[in-house]
């Protein structure tokens, strides 16, 4: 059965700005007529954005990414060139599942700080942002995240800075994760920040199911997203509109869950 997600220009703009910040400044306009499988937008002068209308169209971009570069040299007319595709929630979950399962061994020197160490700075940031966000909702989420049960098993490896800027694609497919400067051992919940910086509510649900995390871990992940989003917002948003937009989305999505 086909489903029809709600797609509008605000969603398209948000997906572009978060997943492809290099094109965040380009104008975005609806293209008509659109297709039966995709909603189409013009991005700047030379790019187009296609968002699948139903489940059956989701895999089309991956198919085109794989085959069009092979077919194009043999065809007498031009064919589309895929310059980027949104990162797949299932692929990201697969990467984190594999990373979090690697035996951490004895790595005391790489032990990451728990969420509670950010308590003072996060509460100060909540107070500082004032009316920009719902203060009561942020405080409630933060209290809930701190009160969530900790990880029951042994510490695991985490990336520590798992966000859109550290994901690479090749031919439109997620191909690499970079920048392991924050690599450590501890609570894998901190890597869940990606769910609130990159994903929509729908893809976030897919990601959570594929990752198979419990409620406590997910709640701590929301706490990490709130804390890091607030830290960046109070530090850079006033002087950097792009950071303001990205962190506003991160905080808002963390509050939504």
**Major sheet: size, sense and barrel closure?**
3 strands, antiparallel
Strand count: 7
Rounded to the nearest angstrom, the distance between the terminal CA atoms is 27 Å
CATH homologous superfamily (4th level) name of the largest domain: Aminoglycoside phosphotransferase (APH), C-terminal lobe
Q: In terms of structural class, how would the helical and strand content be classed?
A: alpha+beta
Overall body shape: globular
Q: Count of DSSP helices?
A: 9
Q: At the first level of CATH, what is the class of the largest domain?
A: Alpha Beta
Named at the architecture level, the CATH assignment of the largest domain is: Alpha-Beta Complex
Which sequence of SSEs, written as H and E, runs from N to C?
Answer: HEEEHHHHEEEEHHHH
Helix content: 40-55%
On the 0-100 scale, what is the average pLDDT?
86
Q: What is the fold named in CATH at topology level of the largest domain?
A: Aminoglycoside 3'-phosphotransferase, Chain: A, domain 2
Name the poorly predicted regions.
none
Fold and architecture overview:
This protein has 257 residues and is an alpha+beta fold. It has two domains: 66 residues; 168 residues, Aminoglycoside 3'-phosphotransferase, Chain: A, domain 2 (Alpha-Beta Complex). It is 44% helix and 12% strand. The protein contains nine helices and seven strands; from the N terminus they run αβββααααββββαααα. β5 and β6 form a beta hairpin. The protein starts with 8 loop residues before the first helix and ends with a helix. 26% of the residues are buried.
């Amino acid at each position: 059965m086909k489903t029809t997600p709600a797609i509008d220009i605000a969603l398209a703009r948000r997906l572009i700005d978060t997943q492809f910040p290099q094109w965040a400044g380009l104008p975005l306009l609806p293209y008509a007529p659109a297709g039966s499988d995709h909603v189409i937008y013009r991005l700047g002068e030379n790019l187009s954005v296609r968002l699948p209308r139903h489940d059956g169209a989701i895999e089309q971009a991956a198919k085109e990414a794989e085959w069009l570069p092979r077919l194009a040299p043999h065809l007498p007319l031009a064919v589309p060139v895929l310059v980027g595709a949104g990162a797949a929630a299932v692929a990201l979950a697969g990467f984190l599942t594999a990373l979090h399962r690697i035996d951490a061994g004895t790595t005391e020197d790489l032990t990451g700080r728990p969420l509670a160490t950010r308590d003072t700075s996060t509460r100060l940031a909540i107070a500082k942002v004032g009316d920009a966000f719902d203060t009561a909702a942020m405080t409630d989420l933060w209290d809930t995240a701190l009160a969530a049960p900790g990880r029951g098993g042994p510490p695991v490896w985490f990336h520590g800075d798992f966000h859109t800027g550290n994901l690479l694609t090749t031919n439109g497919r997620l191909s690499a994760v970079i920048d392991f400067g924050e690599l450590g051992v501890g609570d894998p919940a901190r890597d869940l920040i990606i769910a609130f910086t990159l994903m929509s509510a729908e893809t976030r649900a897919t990601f959570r199911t594929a990752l198979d995390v419990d409620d406590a871990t997910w709640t701590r992940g929301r706490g990490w997203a709130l804390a890091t989003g607030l830290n960046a917002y109070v530090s850079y948003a006033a002087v950097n509109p792009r950071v303001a937009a990205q962190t506003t989305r991160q905080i808002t999505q963390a509050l939504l869950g």
